[in-house]
Inverse folding.
C-alpha cells in the first residue's frame, strides 16, 4: 500500500548542499514540496566548501560557471577574476544560499549513512551517521562526482609526527608554509595548483610525482568593474554558447583537422592557443587531437617542447614530460608558472617511477633511495571519482539489493539519472551524465528531475523506476560515444582506474564522453514522450 505523502517526513530528501543540491532545493520548493537537504559538511558549497587548499581555483571561466537560472543573481554578483579562487566561489554559493533563503531546509554536519527503499509504502528511509532517520517519497542524490577523497596506498601514513592533510579536507584556519619542509604527493590538477602556491613560501618543497600530466597555461586575470559590466551585458551569449558547445565550455573544437593545414599554420595555431586563457588548447584545438594518434602526437610534441623551454635543467624537464599518455587524454591541469617552480632552489622533484615511496615514517617519507625529513605532508591524491560518494552510502533498493554490489563491475544507469531497482531515486551528476563545464550540466539535470516530479505530481503518480531495457539502451549509447577516443587507452579517473582503491585496477565505462547537446537531446526526448521508457505508477 502506498503511504500517503503526508505520512512521510518529507516529499523529497536531497543529499548534498553543493551547486547541485542548492539548485535542486530551489526548484523543488517551487513545486511546493517539503524538502530536507542533508549535508555532511558544516556549510554550503560542496567542492568549494571542502577544497580550501592553497591555490584552489576554477579552470572554467568564472562567468560561464555561475548559475544562469536567475537574472537577479546574474545582475548582482560580480566576479573579480576570470578564474575565481576558491574563497570567492564559496562566498558566491553562500550568497546564493542566503539570497534564496536556503539554509532553513538544510541540515549541516549530517552525513547520510544509508538509504533503504520501502516498497510497501513507496518511500525511502534515510539514516544519518548519528543514528537519526527520516522518511521521504523521493531521494535526490547531489553527492558530487569528485567528493570522496582518497589517500595513496602507502604504509605508515598515521605514523608521521608532523602536520599532514588531504587537499580536499584542508583546515579552515590559515596554514603557513614559512620556514617549513613540505612534501606534496600527487601532480594532478589539484597537485599542480597546490605546488605552485606552496613553492612561494616553503623553505623546502619536495614534489613526489608518479605520473606527470600535460599542464597548460591558465593565464588568469583580474576583472575590474568596467569589464564586469561588459561581461554582464553578454550573459545571454555566454550561456547560449555553453549550450551549443560539446562540453558546455566557452571553447569548442576547431572545425579543422590537424593535417588540414600546413606545418607552419599548425604551429601558429598551437602557439595561439597556448597564449590564450583556459581550456581552449584542450577542447578548442583541432577536431582530431583526441581521436587520431598522429594528430595527438603533434600537439604532445608541441607541449613537450614548451616544457623543455620553461624548465632549465634538461633532466628535470624530461621527468615532467608525460610518456604514458598523449596530451588531453587525461584531465589537463591548468597552471600559472608551474614549470618555473622547478627552476627554484627550494624545490625538488622526486620521480616515483625511479625511486618509489617505501613508507611514511615518523620524520617524513622513505623512498627506495633515501629518507626525506619533513614538517608537513600534503596529499593531493584526488578522489574516488564518479561512484566513490555512492559507494560510501549503503543504498538498498527493491528486495534489499545493494547499489554497491550492482555497480561492483561498473555503474549502470539510465541517462545517468536513474537506476533500475532503485525507484524514486534520482541522481544529479550521477555516473554517465554529461560533465564538462559542470554547472551547465547541473542546471540541466536539476530541471529534468524537477519536470519529472512535476509530471508525477500532476498525475498523482508515486513511483518511478528505470527499466532494464532503458538502462541497456543508454549504456550502449555511452559505449558508442566513447568509441575511438584515445583516452580509452589510458588509466585515469576518466576510465574508472584508481589504483589506491581495491577492485579499481581495470578500465571500465565510467563516464559519458559524448557531447552535452546529444545528451540533452536524448533526455529531452524521454521527457517529451511522457517518460514512457520508465516505469511509472
Ligand atoms: C578542486 C576542484 C576544482 C574544480 N574545478 C572545476 C571547474 O573549474 N569547472 C567545473 O566545471 N568543475 C570543477 N570541479 C568539479 C566540481 O565538483 C563541480 O563543478 C561542482 O562543484 C559539483 O557540484 P555538486 O553539488 O554536484 O557536487 P559537490 O560540490 O561535490 O557537492 C556534493 C556535496 O555532497 C555532500 N555529500 C556527499 N556524500 C554525502 C553523504 N553521504 N551525506 C551527506 N552529504 C554528502 C558533500 O559533503 C558535498 O558537500 C572541480 C572540482 C574540484 C574538486
Amino acid at each position: 500500500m502506498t503511504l500517503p505523502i503526508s505520512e512521510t517526513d518529507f516529499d523529497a530528501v536531497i543529499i548534498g548542499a553543493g551547486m547541485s543540491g542548492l539548485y535542486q532545493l530551489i526548484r523543488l520548493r517551487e513545486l511546493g514540496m517539503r524538502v530536507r537537504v542533508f549535508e555532511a559538511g558544516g556549510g554550503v558549497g560542496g567542492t568549494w566548501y571542502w577544497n580550501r587548499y592553497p591555490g584552489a581555483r576554477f579552470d572554467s571561466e568564472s562567468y560561464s560557471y555561475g548559475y544562469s537560472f536567475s537574472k537577479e543573481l546574474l545582475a548582482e554578483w560580480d566576479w573579480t577574476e576570470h578564474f575565481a579562487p576558491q574563497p570567492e566561489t564559496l562566498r558566491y554559493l553562500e550568497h546564493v544560499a542566503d539570497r534564496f533563503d536556503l539554509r532553513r531546509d538544510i541540515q549541516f554536519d549530517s552525513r547520510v549513512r544509508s538509504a533503504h527503499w520501502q516498497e510497501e509504502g513507496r518511500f525511502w528511509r534515510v539514516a544519518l551517521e548519528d543514528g537519526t532517520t527520516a522518511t521521504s517519497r523521493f531521494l535526490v542524490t547531489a553527492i558530487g562526482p569528485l567528493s570522496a577523497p582518497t589517500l595513496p596506498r602507502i604504509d605508515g601514513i598515521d605514523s608521521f609526527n608532523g602536520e599532514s592533510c588531504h587537499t580536499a579536507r584542508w583546515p579552515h584556519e590559515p596554514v603557513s608554509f614559512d620556514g617549513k619542509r613540505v612534501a606534496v604527493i600527487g601532480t594532478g590538477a589539484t597537485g599542480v595548483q597546490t605546488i605552485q602556491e606552496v613553492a612561494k613560501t616553503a623553505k623546502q618543497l619536495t614534489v613526489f610525482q608518479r605520473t606527470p600530466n600535460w599542464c597548460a597555461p591558465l593565464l588568469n586575470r583580474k576583472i575590474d568593474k568596467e569589464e564586469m559590466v561588459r561581461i554582464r551585458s553578454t550573459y545571454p551569449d555566454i550561456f547560449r554558447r555553453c549550450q551549443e558547445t560539446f562540453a558546455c565550455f566557452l571553447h569548442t573544437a576547431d572545425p579543422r583537422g590537424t593535417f588540414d593545414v600546413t606545418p607552419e599554420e599548425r604551429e601558429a595555431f598551437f602557439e595561439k592557443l597556448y597564449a590564450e586563457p583556459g581550456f581552449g588548447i584542450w577542447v578548442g584545438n583541432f577536431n582530431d587531437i583526441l581521436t587520431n594518434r598522429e594528430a595527438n602526437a603533434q600537439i604532445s610534441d608541441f607541449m613537450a617542447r614548451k616544457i623543455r623551454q620553461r624548465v632549465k635543467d634538461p633532466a628535470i624537464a624530461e621527468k615532467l614530460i608525460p610518456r604514458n599518455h598523449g596530451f588531453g587524454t587525461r584531465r589537463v591541469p591548468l597552471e600559472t608558472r608551474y614549470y618555473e617552480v622547478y627552476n627554484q632552489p627550494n624545490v625538488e622533484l622526486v620521480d616515483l617511477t625511479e625511486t618509489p615511496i617505501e613508507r611514511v615514517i615518523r620524520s617524513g617519507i622513505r623512498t627506495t633511495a633515501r629518507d626525506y625529513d619533513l614538517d608537513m605532508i600534503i596529499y593531493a591524491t584526488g578522489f574516488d571519482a564518479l561512484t566513490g560518494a555512492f559507494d560510501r552510502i549503503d543504498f538498498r533498493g527493491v528486495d534489499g539489493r545493494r547499489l554497491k554490489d550492482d555497480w561492483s563491475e561498473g555503474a549502470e544507469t539510465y541517462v545517468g539519472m536513474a537506476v533500475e531497482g532503485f525507484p524514486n531515486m534520482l541522481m544529479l551528476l550521477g555516473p554517465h551524465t554529461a560533465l564538462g563545464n559542470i554547472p551547465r550540466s547541473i542546471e540541466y539535470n536539476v530541471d529534468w528531475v524537477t519536470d519529472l516530479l512535476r509530471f508525477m505530481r500532476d498525475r498523482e503518480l508515486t513511483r518511478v523506476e528505470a527499466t532494464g531495457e532503458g538502462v541497456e539502451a543508454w549504456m550502449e549509447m555511452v559505449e558508442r560515444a566513447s568509441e575511438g577516443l584515445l583516452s580509452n587507452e589510458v588509466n585515469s579517473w576518466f576510465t574508472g582506474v584508481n589504483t589506491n582503491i581495491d577492485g579499481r585496477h581495470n578500465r571500465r565505462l565510467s563516464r559519458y564522453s559524448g557531447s552535452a547537446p546529444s545528451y540533452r537531446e536524448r533526455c529531452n526526448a524521454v521527457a517529451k514522450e511522457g517518460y514512457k521508457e520508465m516505469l511509472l505508477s
